[in-house]
Amino acid sequence: MKIIVPAKRVVDYNVKVRVKADGSGVELTNVKMSMNPFDEIAIEEALRLKEAGKATEVVVVSIGPAQASETIRTGLAMGADRGILVKADGIVEPLAVAKILKGVIEAEQPGLVILGKQAIDDDSNQTGQMLAALLGWSQGTFASKVVIGDGTVDVTREVDGGLQTVALKLPAVVTTDLRLNEPRYASLPNIMKAKKKPIDEKTAADYGVDIAPRLKVLKTSEPAGRKAGVKVKTVAELVAKLKDEAGVL
Amino acid sequence: MTTLLLADISKGALGDSVAKVLTAAQALGEPVNVLVAGKDCKAAAEAAAKLDGVAKVLVADDAIYDHQLAEPVAALIVSLASGYSAIVSGATTSAKNIMPRVAALLDVMQISEIIKVVSPDTFERPIYAGNAIQTVQSSDRIKVITVRTAAFAATGAGGQAPIEPVAKAADPALSTFKDEAVASSDRPELTSAKIIISGGRAMQNAENFKTYIEPVADKLGAAMGASRAAVDAGYAPNDWQVGQTGKIVAPQLYIAVGISGAIQHLAGMKDSKVIVAINKDEDAPIFQVADYGLVADLFTALPELAEELGKIGR
Predict the structure, then answer these.
(1) What part of A 115-144 touches B (C-beta under 8 Å)?
(2) pLDDT confidence of B47, banded at 50, 70, 90?
(3) Do A221 and B293 count as a contact with CB atoms less than 8 A apart?
(4) What is the rounded average pLDDT of the residues B32-51?
(5) Which residue in A81, A78, A60 sits closest to A69, CA to CA?
(6) What CATH number should be reported for the domain whose range is A2-245?
(7) What ipTM score was computed for the predicted complex, to two decimals?
(8) What's the structural domain count of chain B?
């Protein structure tokens, strides 16, 4: 079984983004970019399934500018077999991403797609569900455990009240949550090896997808700030302030 | 046109989020129908009918909607969609699972986790863990929207909407429910609690949550939460996680204990009315958003806090 892992190039999770003064977006020049952390978890899970003999090939797909090939190389250095870069500039919304991925999947015929539950830039949490819908496949979102069976996959999902386990018919789309695994670091020899692994280049037009955004961003603004308050010296003082000053007790 | 609100239900009861989502739905300016899909969900439908301003409650009561699996519930919504200009739901894990599937089937771009309705086609939503707020305008004919419930006040009771059954849609039969591990607790739900006390990595283990956090939570009638670090370390269950990718909360009082205050955690609680931070490290970033900060060892401060609360009759 082949596994496809879509991965997004995003602002590194340690960067505190700044809103541009003219409200046109966030400052992205000279900002460190990395693979979306949830997608790293997705690659790790695919690699573990391959190592356990449940999968034969792991293919990393990224949609974005030319530099998204670095994101794919990161995945290849972790151990993925090959990559597909679908070049697209500007914002590509989850719906368009899902449509492009559908094209990739129809060409590649994987048995399973694993991807992050959300990208930490736009925080949309949509792509996996949309992809499953467009393919007419089952979906297992927010996975904390994935067990491949015979023609099915059991996915344990992190839900509001705790955990839920569903059995999905394969092929399926699985989106990862934080507790699924801890991604490995790429070793130096593997980073060197990854440079020789193939990356196919495609464009959105190759899949006949119109990537024009459906949502018009009118402006981007700073959130309402919160000032630091006061330090209290004792627990008794804290309780008194909460009761008398803040009125929340 | 009309707005369709997909109700969150758990164990046959209407979720607390629905009254808040209704406030956002009504801001779209159209009548609101509430869809209750589940098994044995009569009580939830009756509760929804009592919310003020609901035009109609639609009930799809069938075994295939038990556990709200995404594939059959999305198919149901799509079968109803033609009469609606908007489909909204709270940003619960259940709706986050279902709604994008609906949006893709309708070929529209979902607007996730709105925090404000600017006009019927324009919304504010946080991006980058809430470090920026985007104002977006949708040109799609049907708006598919999830609502960050912490950003909206609840609509009150007083309605008497008619309840109508709707036919089930064909079951895509792609997935089946196997089991669930859902903690039952007398405590309030994290997302609707008035007071929350959360612990971080400094709690050191699960036992300390019980020994130190729980007595304070009991005195305050508070929900208990945790930082990602504490959940990853296994000190607290996953559904306690407050943050960018966990639960987004905005209680009257949020007490952060032994939590340093990573931006991903702040994203989940910075809209709380009053924030208290208890941390040994006086340079912890959590103090930059706290209204009241106490630099102290949590293992001495929490028992004292329980005692002081007792003194004022909590």
Answers:
(1) 117-118, 120-134, 136-142, 144
(2) very high
(3) no
(4) 97
(5) A60
(6) 3.40.50.620
(7) 0.96
(8) 2
